[in-house]
Amino acid sequence: MTKFEYQSALITGASSGIGKSFAYLLASKGVNLVLSARSEDKLLQISEELRAEFKINVVCIKTDLSEINASQLIFDQIAKQNISIDLLINNAGIGKWTNFLDESINSYQEMIQLNVNSLVTLTQLFLPQMLQNKKGGIINIASTGALQPCPYIAVYCATKSFVLNFSESLYGEYFDKGITVTAICPGNTQTDFQKTAQANTQGMSFESPDEVAKQSIEALLKRKNNKIIGFNNYLQSFIPRLLSRKIVIKIVKNMMDKKVNG
């Protein structure tokens, strides 16, 4: 088997969904892993399975990235164990489908802390060593919701728009220094996200988390700045480029109003 380009990866939100799929995919390529999530039991179960099947090193870090100091905690624990991370996958995230005023400000602050602040902090903490080694990869999970204004998912999609623009900006800064930063824009994916977000996705198409992870790694290895997952999602991404933003807002508003308010 050809040696995989990266040797050690940190995956946030690794206990389920896309993060778990990343873990199994990278483990199959011989990549040693640091897995982070809130659910310690799930992390320990996954790590035992990965060690047994793929004979790799796996470190589990239980932490909640919606808390302010969590990113530094992860970095410090990895540093204490002298682990060098050359692939960072910022996957953890939460969202809500709701009328803006129906959710508390604390909920929105946690969402911004997790989706934006922790992602930026982890990137800033792990990037210097990648630059020192002149080699590294960063995958940031955004969303197709990042591609246009999204009434009724306002805060979530705004955070993912940040992730997309932040990632592509860093791609521009560091690509010629050996670092690839790739933003991934999945649409609906078969994970627990819909339940947590109280999202009515009836009648909508889905991608599997395994497929999202697979296409994400392929995009990174091809040195892409972004990847929209799913052909239909790719086609829909052209709508905001062809129509005025006001018309796009109205289209999304009408669609989401039915989903959120019935």
TrEMBL record:
Classification via Gene3D superfamilies: NAD(P)-binding Rossmann-like Domain
Coiled coil spans: none
Presence of keyword Calcium: no
Presence of the UniProt keyword Oxidoreductase in the record: yes
Family statement drawn from the similarity comment of this UniProt entry: Belongs to the short-chain dehydrogenases/reductases (SDR) family.
Listed PANTHER family: NADP-DEPENDENT 3-HYDROXY ACID DEHYDROGENASE YDFG, VERY-LONG-CHAIN 3-OXOOACYL-COA REDUCTASE
Protein name (record): SDR family oxidoreductase
Originating organism: Empedobacter tilapiae
